[in-house]
Amino acid sequence: MTTTIARDTQTRAAAKTTPVTGIVVGASRVVISFLFGFHGLQGFGFFGGIDGQGGGVPFGSFPGWWGSLLELVGAVLLFAGLASRPAAILLSGVMAYAYFTVHAPMGLLPLQNMGEPAAVYAWVFLLFAAIGPGRFAVDNLIKRRR
Questions:
Q1: Global pTM value
Q2: How far is CA 83 from CA 10, 11, 70, 96, in A?
Q3: Which of 36, 38, 122, 135 is surrounded by the fewest CB atoms within 10 Å?
Q4: Within 13 Å of residue 119, how many CA atoms lie on the same side as its CB?
Q5: Preceding amide of 63 cis, omega within 30
Q6: Which tens digits make up the pLDDT trace of 60-104?
């Protein structure tokens, strides 16, 4: 009985996956990681910096400088689709940490504490960790060569 239920669940899950699904997931991963990379660069003073005046976080400071470094490296890895699941888990954790330590003390809801981008990114990266990189990923090339 349980084997039948498990097989039926797998059949339904497989039926929902189409060739377009991998393309959409892959394209979403590329676009989201590209946009997220700019957040990491802001910590280093690019694109107006953290203060809108081009200021970056002090070198080596925690959590600002290290968070910016993790955001940038993670975004590059996710963009390429290289070690995408570990990178996505790491980025989800970075954004959850940012939300709870920086934004949540200012208010309960993300719209009140300006933490909506951090919350959304945390959940999107968790989704990529769960479903994988989709198409156009270096991970897929490595898997095929094995």
A1: 0.81
A2: 26, 28, 14, 20
A3: 38
A4: 12
A5: yes
A6: 888 888 999 999 999 999 999 999 999 999 999 999 999 999 999
